[in-house]
Amino acid sequence: MKHAHNTTRARAIDPLPGFRFALVSTLLWVGLIVALPLTALVMRPWQEGIGAMTAALQDSRMFAALRVSFVSAFLAALIDVPLGVILAWTLVRARLPGRRVADALIDLPFAIPTAVTGITLATLYGPQGWLGAPLARLGISIAYTATGIVVALMFVGLPFIVRSVEPVLRDLPPDLEEAAGLLGARPWQIVTRVVLPALLPATVTGFGLAFARGIGEYGSVIFIAGNQPFRSEIAPLLIVVRLQEFDYPGATSIAFVLLVVSSLCLAGVAWLRRRVARGLITGAAA
């Protein structure tokens, strides 16, 4: 009897103090900050009738802006992958002077305003800039072109790759590499067959984060892109243009299409990450 009373009392004690408060707070935050605005965005284009959405789907300028945004974000994230892995490797394994300073500088894109980033890159890669002038003499234009968009997105997306890979690389046991070396593996085989497969899920995660950031990036892009319709105009800028024209149905329609396509792309990245992780677990079990 006493044992049953103690069991009932133990069940009555909340194992996580404040759990109900945390649950309610989380649901309110998700509902008011995430779900409600997204629901309003989904419903708003249809309030003007199906004509607004039909007109948006026939807007060639919108599809050109979406193409520029997604292609630029994909290329920037793809280029950032090897650069981010190398930087993460350097920060974790190398004991170079100034490593702490370099580690702090990697997080700089998180801290500085995006407009400052855009102005700095436009000045640096402009026709009279420190890097833009020598490149212009070689016939290479960065600023005010689609290439400038990729450069800006590389700058803001690189920290996502580094910070995703760094903790996994830090926790990777050096014994695996030593064992592979003792078994006769060459350095390039150790990297390709031991290190890189272990980093692959984190790399895919970092790629997805950099890609998602690049799709919606605005401030750091508009100063260096040139913003030419059908060439270097991004989708977030076109939304602002429509709002300045008081074309609210057109702006929300573009935002709706951008939301749907972005969600599909991110779902694809998440699916790929799960497949990679499942493949590694299956391979390790085998």
From TrEMBL:
Keywords of the record: Membrane, Sulfate transport, Transmembrane, Transmembrane helix, Transport
Principal location class: membrane
Subcellular localization: Cell membrane
Pfam families: BPD_transp_1 (PF00528)
Bilayer-crossing regions: 21-43, 63-92, 104-126, 138-162, 194-212, 251-272
PROSITE patterns: ABC_TM1
Domain spans labelled ABC transmembrane type-1: 66-270
InterPro entries for the chain: CysT_permease, MetI-like, MetI-like_sf, Sulph_transpt2
Membrane topology: Multi-pass membrane protein
Similarity remark: Belongs to the binding-protein-dependent transport system permease family. CysTW subfamily.
Function: Part of the ABC transporter complex (TC 3.A.1.6.1) involved in sulfate/thiosulfate import. Part of the ABC transporter complex CysAWTP (TC 3.A.1.6.1) involved in sulfate/thiosulfate import. Probably responsible for the translocation of the substrate across the membrane.
Subunit structure: The complex is composed of two ATP-binding proteins (CysA), two transmembrane proteins (CysT and CysW) and a solute-binding protein (CysP).
Annotated protein name in UniProt: Sulfate transport system permease protein CysT
Gene responsible for this protein: cysT
